[in-house]
From TrEMBL:
It comes from the Bacteria. The chain crosses the membrane at residues 6-27. This is Uncharacterized protein. It comes from Chitinophaga barathri. Keywords: Membrane, Transmembrane, Transmembrane helix.
Amino acid sequence: MLENVTWTQFFIGVGVMLLVYYLFVFFKYFNQHRLLVSGTVTNDASKREDSNDALAEETIAAAEELSDRIAESIAYAADTKMRKDELLQRLRAEISDFPTLDTPAFREGIKNVILSETDRNGSVTLSEREVNELWG
C-alpha cells in the first residue's frame, strides 16, 4: 500500500496535516490575542488591567481629595483657634469618609500630610501616636 505513495505525495500529506494542526492551535489559543491587537475585541486580562487602572486612579484621586480636606480642616482649626480634641474629632470624621484609603501606604502618606500641615500652621501640635489613633 505504501509502495504506491511517492515521497512528494508523502511530504504534501504531512504538510497538509501540519497546516491543519497549527491552524487548529492558532484558532484555539491565539485568536483572542489576534483580535485584541486589531482593537476589535478585548479579552479578560485587558479588562482587568483597565479596571485596575481605573481603580488606582480613583484611589489616588480620593487620596488627593482627602489631603485637600485635611489641609482645609487644619487651616480652619488654626483660624478659629480650635482645641486639639475638636481637631482630632474633625480629622477622624474626614478620614472615615474614605474607607478605601485604610491601607498602610495611604495611612503613612495621610499621616505625613497631617503632621506637615499642623507644623506649617502652628496652631495645634499633634504627635505621631495621636495621628495613628485617628484610624481607631
